[in-house]
Amino acid sequence: MRHHIIVLGAGYAGGYAAGYLARHLHPDDFEITVVNAEADFVERLRLHELAAGHELRRHRLEEIFEGTGARLRVARVTAVDPDHRTVTVVDDEGVDRLEYDTLLYTLGSSVADHGVPGVAEHAFHIAGRPSALRLRERLDELGEHGKVLFVGGNLTAIEGSTEIAALRPGLQVALATDGELGGWLGPKARPHLLRAFDRLGIEVHERTPIERVTATGAVAADGTAFDTDAVVWAAGFAVHPIAAASGLAVEDDGRITVDAEMRSVSHPEVYAAGDSVCAIDKHGRPLPMSCASAGFTSMRATAAILKDLTGRKGANTPLAYLGNCISLGPKDAVFQAVDGQARSKGWALRGRPAAHFKAFVLRGTVWNVGHPTYGRPTRRHRLAAAPGRSAAKTAPARSDEAVST
Length: 405
Known about the structure:
single chain, alpha/beta, FAD/NAD(P)-binding domain, four-stranded parallel beta sheet, 11 helices, 28% helix, globular, disordered C terminus
């Protein structure tokens, strides 16, 4: 009977990992099932573009996994039972329970409402493709007249507000944040960011925490009322509660607690990567939820799975965060490099060069999912198999390549 591996989620972490494992494990001994809520690979880094009005190219997961042996199951995960090694999913045909021998958990994250009343009922967000399309429909309804308020001061709020302001200049776009806009950026990047907001006519309200969202706007903690046609909540991300409800060991924020190889500390047959995992870098800091972290943690997880299942030891991919690449509309951006303590360096790439770099990163993330073994041997019939198969001993070492953003 073949060893069954289930990968939950096919985003930046899960999509890459599933393809990599499928190309390195012998199909006679291993079966890989990828469970994803959508039939397409979603470029989450570009959802603000989708919301603003851009048409994004579709990337069908069946085509991405074609010829690899990985089987796609389009369904929504509702529960994980690590004690009995089962996953409960729901699709158009009803409820199903899948059994696994090894589980890779990469369900990612969604919007965090922080318990603020009215967010779920009245606010829009761009943490997923359906929600981005709902916002786009609302913007289409407003046409050239209307007000949009972004709540948040980090990357999602910055990219979303600038993209919409650039593509829909008739709208009045504002942003409210409880801190300083881009306050973490260095002395070159932050002034460039603020100039971009001025150029695009975005009204900024710093130190203005929003304590309530209503059907007609939002109310700040100091009583300031924002009358607006659409509130876009972009105040951070939260992981899905499935892991915590399953009995897996998790951190206070719900991210799965793992060892250095992305293996669950409570259930060693479960691995995690991407936003779902609390991965600690060499400085003792948790990696932030990001595409870059998805790349590094998925490489760590796949190396550990191959080692545990085949005896083949791979490269120890470093866990690092290199910087923030932030688009400021279609033709502007900043790339802020950070040090080992995640503090902004003085150097930053700005303007068109940064926008070109951002575009390169976006193309690279999609390409990497479809080509997870680029530059590395892919003769899986020699690479890996069940324990005891001699091919495992001849497997080549992994590369430490990753794309950061």
